[in-house]
Amino acid sequence: MTILVTGATGNVGRNMVEQLVRAGQHVRALTRDPAAARLPEGAEAVAGDLNDPPSLARALDGVTGLHLITIGGAGGETLGTAPEIMELAARAGVRKCTVLWSGTEGPVEEAVEKSGLEWTMLQPVEFMSNMRGWIESVRDEGVVREPYGAERSALVHEADIAAVAVAALTGDGHAGRRYVVTGPEVLTVPGKVRALSEALGRELQFIELDEAQARENMRAAGATDEVIDFVLGWHADPPPMAYTVLPTVEEVTGRPARTIAQWAEENAELFRS
Question: Labelling 68: which of 49, 93, 122, 222 has CA 20 to 30 A away?
Fold first, then answer.
């Protein structure tokens, strides 16, 4: 079995590549620049661009499992080439496909469902890795700036999302399933800051932003207005799934979901000066 991971240098994709290599799977990692990918030994880096389906022909050759992301650009816009990609995948003999959503189902999921492949939809809530957006302000000022401090979130470790995807691609019984993937606890923003403070061994300050400030920060980071509206709308009034703990990780992988304390310990050095 050969598994192609798209978004292979992202938070979930990189974890998938590492886990598949450890499991002895032949993993092919799609990236625009293989030379700069810094993938683990044993992974095969291949060049390709999801926005240019013909560039994927070599990457898909001999692949039986595909992990597909739904974002098509740095601004967070939805991938617009999914029908062409799925046609290429079906012709190449791909049998299974996992799809990592971006917060709502759309044309990518629709194309995958119509493809005839065995599909599994991954619907994680907030990623713990989003906290890496605090690195600069924590290092320089000991401060975290976020809107909606009272928002509750069952945020999930990116390695757990990857583990569910790996299980779906390498095991049986996952076809046609939609997996909502959460962490094991519900936290507000100050709760996340507290967990990071404990891992760092120093007190961090939380400063709550208003919506206008949050919007400007996202725009400066390159997000499109459509993405900004969606993200801020989600955080301002999150759906119940965002703060409801589910046992998906343990049911699918056989082990409990990782805690925010574990994530903070694993990533603490990134936040130190």
Answer: 222
